[in-house]
Amino acid sequence: MGPNFFTNYYQVFGVILFGIGFTALFLHRNLFKKVIGLNIMDSAVYLILASSGYIDGRAAPIVVDGITDASAYINPIPSGLVLTGIVVSVSVTAISLSLIQRLYREYHTLDLDEILMQSSKEL
């Protein structure tokens, strides 16, 4: 382990979470597990973005006590990106789960191979 491991543990944990989500997304055939893997990947990206915008010893970018020097505050852009990403992620998850529900009603399974096989028989 390098000397920056303990100072960048949020990024290391984010990369590990991303790997777990990526593995779940590509190895599982169950559509619900794929959505869970996608959500884990989203959370990892948000963790990496939020941790990259934080600087130890700095405050939130709200002017207090007349301090207007930019070096006293953290960067607000990653926080805004994380909030926007969370809203988009919730929307994508809701649409994905509703589509999965419709597929289950139609094919009575959540296995992607079974759905593809049954849909090819219908053609």
Task: Write up what this structure looks like.
This protein is mainly α and 123 residues long. The protein has a single domain, classed as Orthogonal Bundle (Helix Hairpins), CATH 1.10.287.3510. The protein has four helices and no strands. The protein has helices at residues 9-27, 31-53, 77-107, 112-122. Helix 1 runs antiparallel to helix 2 and helix 2 packs antiparallel against helix 3. It starts with 8 loop residues before the first helix and ends with a helix. The model has no long low-confidence stretch (mean pLDDT 90).
In DSSP terms (H or I, runs of 4 or more residues), the helix count works out at 4
Number of separate structural domains: 1
The unreliable regions are none
Question: What's the SSE pattern?
Answer: HHHH
Largest sheet: none
What characteristic shape results from the CA principal axes?
elongated
CATH C-level class: Mainly Alpha
CATH architecture: Orthogonal Bundle
Query: Which topology does CATH recognise?
Result: Helix Hairpins
Helicity level, as a percent range? 55-70%
State which percent range the strand residues make up. Answer: under 5%
Q: How many beta-strand segments?
A: 0
The averaged pLDDT comes out at 90
Distance between the termini: 55 Å
- Overall SS class: mainly alpha
CA radius of gyration: 21 Å
SSE inventory with pairings:
Elements: H1 9-27, H2 31-53, H3 77-107, H4 112-122
Kindly summarize this structure in a few lines.
With 123 residues, the protein is mostly helical.
